[in-house]
Amino acid sequence: MDLSKRKFKEDFKKMLTEVYSMGLKESEATEQFFTLGNLIRSYVAKNWSRTNQAYIEKGKKQVYYFSMEFLLGRMLKSNLLNLGILETVRDGLSDLGIDLEALVQIEPDPGLGNGGLGRLAACFIDSMATSEIPAHGNGIRYKYGLFKQKFVNGYQVELPENWLQNGNVWETRKMHAAVTVRFYGHVWLEHSGKGYLVPHYEDAQEVLAVPYDSAVIGFNNEIVNTLRLWSAEVPPQDESTDYWSFIHQRNEIESISEVLYPDDSNYEGRLLRLKQEYFFVSAGVQSIIRHYKKMHLGIEHLAEKVAIHINDTHPALCIPELMRILLDEEHMDWEHAWHLTINTMSYTNHTIMTEAMEKWPIEMIQTLLPRIVQIICEIDRRYVMEMGRLFDTDLIQSTRIVEGGHVRMAHMAIIGSHSINGVAQLHTNILKEKVLHPFYLIYPSKFNNKTNGITQRRWLMLANEPLRHLIDRKIGNEWATMPTELKMLKAFREDKRTLQELAEVKRQNKVRFARFVEESMGLEINPEAIFDVQIKRLHAYKRQLLNLLHILSLYFKLKEHPEADLHPRVFIFGAKAAPSYTYAKQIIKLINSVAELINHDPDIHDKLKLVFVENYGVSLAERIIPAADVSEQISLASKEASGTSNMKLMLNGAVTLATLDGANVEIREHVGEDNIVLFGLRTDEVYHYYKDGTYHAHDYYEKNQVLHRVLNALIDGTIPGAEAEGYAIFDSLVRYGDEYFVLRDFDDYAAAQERIDRLYRDSLIWQKMALINIASAGIFSSDYTVQQYASQIWDVSSKVHRI
Ligand code: NBY
What we know:
Elements: H1 5-20, H2 29-57, E1 62-66, H3 76-83, H4 86-95, H5 100-106, H6 116-130, E2 135-140, E3 148-152, E4 155-159, E5 171-173, E6 179-183, E7 186-191, E8 197-202, E9 205-217, E10 224-233, H7 243-254, H8 271-293, H9 302-305, E11 306-311, H10 318-329, H11 334-344, E12 345-348, E13 359-361, H12 362-368, H13 370-388, H14 393-399, E14 402-403, E15 406-408, H15 409-415, E16 420-422, H16 425-435, H17 437-442, E17 447-449, H18 456-462, H19 465-475, H20 496-521, E18 530-535, H21 544-560, E19 569-574, H22 582-599, E20 608-613, H23 618-624, E21 630-633, H24 645-651, E22 655-658, H25 664-671, E23 677-678, H26 683-692, H27 697-703, H28 705-713, H29 723-735, H30 742-761, H31 763-776, H32 782-794
Parallel strand pairs: 1-2, 1-11, 2-10, 11-12, 12-16, 16-17, 18-19, 18-21, 19-20, 21-22, 22-23
Antiparallel strand pairs: 3-4, 5-9, 6-9, 7-8, 9-10, 13-15, 14-15
Helix pairs in contact: 1-2, 1-4, 2-5, 6-32, 8-10, 10-11, 10-13, 12-13, 19-20, 20-31, 21-22, 21-28, 21-30, 22-29, 27-28
Ligand NBY binds next to helix 6.
């Protein structure tokens, strides 16, 4: 938008008086932040209603991205950037004696997600608005986001994350758009006499779903889409309501949108979680239908105007819910309703880990959602009947929805939608060939791949301004919306000056991060060291342990040979463990205890440091990623569906140290073998081991001297404070089979780390690798990813940028 600095300053002062009746001098950062937020909203208002108006007038097909999680991060700078007024506002504020960065810190980081899946949804809505795709997010307005992590004596402690405490400046409560969601009670069907059945409900609990809308601002294109998050409230009561029963009901109802489930891998078969899922699904689908019907196009054309995307199986109840509305409220017959539903729905799978596959006990659904259970059972019955004619019984039994008294949500999602995609090429192949192979036999054409992506605007333009400016000077700024333009940087691969400038940018970022570590943790780290980063949820399959065992091996090496020729390293971890995931928490404690040991050992000086940042999340990622030299992507091959920190780190010039897992495979294809450091088992080797059962972790402990020493350290008192954890972890590796092949990959990993050490010593070689990584990262922009969803799955137009 056009905004002069002078106009901005006037607007800002005016808004401050209007909202707070304050002059600039009396105001503090909090008031200034809210003032700026309100001002941005006022700037956005016109384009927001224009965008909605245009979508209606042009009759454009709308996409609704249903996700239990949107891990947005702070929005202030992102909104300013996308409006095209970041620099104007920064300068204007500075004239007024205000530091924009100080206001940034006031905004709480809304942690409405666990990890990759939630952050992907956030990158997607940014990219969809930027790519001019008429697409909106639909989710839950949790009162409490993902817990705040504290370390107490090295143990993870969880604290509530009350992000709404001071209000959320970006949202608008839309009371007029509230809808009612029904739970419990009984339902029976009666013939209407007009050829359809009418459901009657008795004793149902009614919950009011109130939407809070936030603007999703496209980058410099005047498009403003909507993120709609639902909050659960008590419906208006009549005068006969008993006060205490009201209070009781209120607590029960409000608990639905109270808190995000803090587990990123193990679904919890809890009633409240099922309530959450149906709550936002029903509210969202009802509101879509209400909006659609205003256009008077006839319900039979729904799939031409609406696409509903299901982010993992958590919103899979969209399928029976849409069926319910089409059957019970629109009085469609089953076949037409089913046809429409399939054509409307599409589904993304994010994991192959069986423990993360949702399965709901049928009685639980029966009690909570009596009408929905009827519909699910009917979908299942017809599936078995109709497919039974075409395929053999075993195949149909293994793919049906209802089995062993449970509803298998992934099965419902596949059967009820026209598209299922994996999130990286390797992952999609594993789905087709292994995990979902029976479905692939039945519906080969539903399967497709959409490799994940990240928004370069947040993860480079905003998070790494020094790099942004360097790139702009070298190749211009078209990469903001045409990220593969970054490839033009390759022209500078032999240009010493550019490589030195790149090194200088990295050094600056490392100094900045080192200052942060010193201030927040009281720990000094040396910016000349290699900053080696592993940031992601803590999970056994991601193998933070492999990293830790290697750190211990370096520590012992330095103890025994203080003269050993190692380039100084700072190992940086950031990770939250699910509160109920004991093993992950033991690993956190062990890492913290090893950090204590190494960081305070005077023999080590600054050759080795271990930093475990507390409360890792989007805001910390934005600080760490620009300072990273090495990107640890070391999951056991086949386990990480895609990964997205791999893409963010690469985009910021870190060199990837990786197994051939998830999107690492595609990163290698784009940077070439020489610009990535690979190690470890391949997917087929892992499957081979599963098949023939010949992996014996104990042998590696017995035969590998280095490993033997390192593993013994877990149980011989070498690591003070973590004795119990050391034993448990030792046992998991040596006695109980080492499920994720940590010991098997250890040597290869250590050798890869030595290659990193050697490569880093030649600054020009290293910077050339960094440059090629940056230059090759454009293809992993979520702009391209969503453009592919738009054309290949949703059948909607987008502003497609050349790849
Ligand atoms: O989704 C992640 C994958 O592990 C990662 O490889 C991929 O890049 C990313 C985006 O596709 N999965 C993930 O983050 N999953 C969750 O956060 C999650 C959350 C809740 C539940 C399961 C998984 N749950 O069952 O409640």
